[in-house]
Amino acid sequence: IDTRKVQVAREAIKAGAVVINDIEANRQDPAMWEVVADSGAGYVAMHMQGSPGSMQHSPHYGDVVADVTGFFKDRLAQILLSGVKKEQVMLDVGIGFGKTLDHNLALLRRLGEFHSLGQPLLLGVSRKSMFQTLLGVKSPTERMPAGIACACWAMRQNVAMIRTHDVGETVQALRMWEALQAIEQI
What we know:
With 186 residues, this protein is of the alpha/beta class. Helices cover 45% and strands 11% of the residues. Helix 1 (6-14) runs parallel beside helix 2 (31-39).
């Protein structure tokens, strides 16, 4: 379930959800992590500067990778103190959530640095507006090739999970990428 609301997470788990994707990494209600700990559900902590309504109003960072890493270190410490197990947690750098094009590109280029946190990474770049800014592609559905290219890059950076709108196409591209990687091993 994609939610930042504790009651929604609780009801979704009762209905069978097994992962909570929290775009705020629980900045609203400490009970979110209690729900995660009690249920044993997976938990995706995503970085976002600001709130959904304000995140794109002049986002700023000293060093976006260092700042996001610091955020995750703080969040992870709090998550683990709340009783959530380390193996329940994935991290999402939050491409497009309170970030400029330059911030997004820096995060993508330096994805591998986040492995120092010891948690698997999830990346969601499907149909992002940054592709309109970078490539001039206005329609979200026309942004699929750029999202797939980023998914392949993410796999090369050992990202554990890709979130996409274009599942079949992305799976096909990643399987081809894996086949090409296997050829390198021969």
